[in-house]
Amino acid sequence: MAKRRVVITGAAGYIAGRSLPVLRERYDLCLLDVRQTDRNGNEVEGIVRTDLLNRDRNAYREHFSDTDAVIHCGFTRANAPEDQFLAESDNIAMAYNVYQTCLEENVRRVVVISSNHATDFYETLIWSGRMEFVTPDMRPLSDNFYGWAKASYELLGFAFAAGKVGNGRKLQNIQLRIGGPRETVADNLRTENLKGMHRSLGAYLSARDQTQLLIRSIETENIEDENGIPFQIFYGISGNSHNFWSIANARKLIGYEPEDNSLIRFADRIAPVLADAKRDKERGVDADR
Q1: Contact at 8 Å (CB) between 31 and 8?
Q2: How far is 231 from 174, CA to CA, in rounded Å?
Q3: What are the phi and psi torsion angles at 255 (to 5°)?
Q4: pLDDT tens for residues 230-258?
Q5: Which are the contacts of 164, defined by CB distance < 8 A and separation ≥ 6?
Q6: Residue 1: pLDDT over 80
Q7: Which of 4, 41, 147, 231 sits CB 3.0–4.6 Å from 161 for a disulfide?
Q8: Which residues contact 204 (CB under 8 A, 6 or more apart)?
Q9: Using CA atoms in the order 123, 223, 155, 108, what is the torsion angle rounded to 10 degrees?
Q10: For helices 14-26 and 207-219, what crossing angle results, to 10°?
Q11: What Rg value do the Cα atoms of the chain yield, rounded?
């Protein structure tokens, strides 16, 4: 059986790099980026240098031809804080270019690397005790430009999935709100900040769970919502005991079954922090002072 052809944008970046070894084996990949080396300066084999901010989509259209799915990881960073709005505006324009090109080239589905920051205002409520859990169907609310751009990816993606823009075809669309995709989430666990520890452990996403989530997002046949729109938002986190973002819909709709749990993965580093917290409590010391 022929392998699916999958385009990965931002393929030299960190998120793509975590899953590339498995994805290379499973799919016929086309890797796009503006650079050919990763953050450590190592060359990424197979990169085609492509600027997806170019308004002339004919400059990169050929790479999307005869493609089953696109994983959109590409983005640009601001050089200074005062430039962040314009940089994030460029990221929204890049997402548009990807969506529109996919629509025109009959790509079946786009899987977009969004972020938990699309809803990070809710964390203000969670850590102040006014809310306990965030679900993907809640209205995206962010108090910064980065999160605003990610929420805009999602809203723009829904417009394409609804079939009311472009050529009228419904472009299947999955948004992955990535949490903490790194093994350093347990590096700064502190007795005096148990809420911060809860946050770090709840956000954890292992590389193999990220890869599984990407594969299931590409290969699940039907992703239509209750209104017949092929659009879904999933939180990109492992099966953590400390979760405060819901992955129930990912479990139900695409069969996501995370293999990792930060409580187990980092048990040896959590145990001494909790032991110290217990002693502090017995002495009447506030753990989150």
Answers
A1: yes
A2: 6
A3: 70, 30
A4: 999 999 999 999 999 999 999 999 999 99
A5: none
A6: no
A7: 231
A8: 179, 180, 185, 237, 238, 240, 260, 262, 265
A9: 130
A10: 60
A11: 20
